[in-house]
């Protein structure tokens, strides 16, 4: 399976919808999309990972590097990791939790909550 990244804007948020497998071969494409968004002046970024079926350590590395990049430019990064996914919940959610790094990210169940800026909609807890 390959990787697909679709870009859209939702208010002040740049949204990257990632689907397929996030692995050693495909993760550089996601990294490039994140870098391109920052280079275009987008400092509020949502990575929709709800359709990612597989994620290995290089994929996790891209997510951590993306977090670091967004923090370095005083930006914001939010992940969409739904509790329910294609097979018993989000694969990426399970991988991040197993590695103990999910707490590093602001995770939301859907695009509406991820792009909302009101205090009532907070991130999901780890």
List keywords for this structure.
single chain; 126 residues; alpha/beta; Transcription Regulator spoIIAA; 4 helices; 34% helix; 30% strand
A few lines on this structure:
The protein has four helices and five strands, in the order E-E-H-E-H-E-H-E-H.
Detailed description of the structure:
The protein has 126 residues and is an alpha/beta fold. The chain is globular, with a radius of gyration of 13 Å. The longest helix is centred in the middle third of the chain and has 16 residues. The mean pLDDT is 88. The chain has four helices and five strands. It has a five-stranded mixed sheet with strand order 1-2-3-4-5. It has one domain: 2-Layer Sandwich (Transcription Regulator spoIIAA).
Shape: globular
* Radius of gyration based on Cα positions: 13 Å
Assign the CATH class.
Answer: Alpha Beta
Q: State the total count of DSSP E strands.
A: 5
Helix content: 25-40%
Strand content: 25-35%
| Number of structural units classed as domains | 1
Proper CATH architecture: 2-Layer Sandwich
Low-confidence stretches: none
Counting H and I runs of at least 4 residues, what is the number of helices? 4
- Major pleated sheet: 5 strands, mixed
Q: What is the topology, as strand order, of the major beta sheet?
A: 1-2-3-4-5
Structural class: alpha/beta
Q: Alpha-carbon distance between the termini? A: 29 Å
By CATH's scheme, which homologous superfamily applies? STAS domain
Could you tell me the CATH topology label: Transcription Regulator spoIIAA
* Mean pLDDT, all residues: 88
